[in-house]
Amino acid sequence: MEWIAQHFNEQGFTSPKGKSWTPRIVYDLIVTVGEKVETLGNIHRKAITEARAQGLSYREMAIEFNEKKIPRRKDCDRPWTERNLAHTWSKLNRRKGKQQQKESPSAKESDPVFKKSA
Asked: What is d(CA 20, CA 7) in angstroms, rounded to the nearest whole number?
């Protein structure tokens, strides 16, 4: 988003409201036209899941991710390591578990005995 905004501004393009481009304006425009913006977390989850399916170790994943130039974080030029890959995978799994807990109804809500009658 940042690169696109910078490029548009360098080319002299103005935003739909006639202002300079910002990463947020670019993001909003992409969302408006229906393009799916993939989060860095989703990119990491997909890449690590695929690498684990291939049987790669965290060390091998780090080498592959660095070769493919998969960014660790926004505005971070530091390379992947075995340790930060393991940490990232652990963090992604904790988030996924919390999301699943939020999405699944509690036992009381799903049990017909506890449902309110209309």
From this structure: 11
Per-residue pLDDT of 16-64, as tens digits, reads: 889 999 999 998 888 887 756 678 888 899 999 999 999 999 999 999 9
Instruction: Give the closest residue to 79 by CA, choosing from 64, 97, 96.
Output: 64
Tokens at residue 98, please? 């919390």
pTM, 2 dp: 0.53
The gap from C-alpha 27 to its chain's centroid, in whole angstroms, comes to: 14
Q: Where are the domains of the chain?
A: 2-32, 40-90
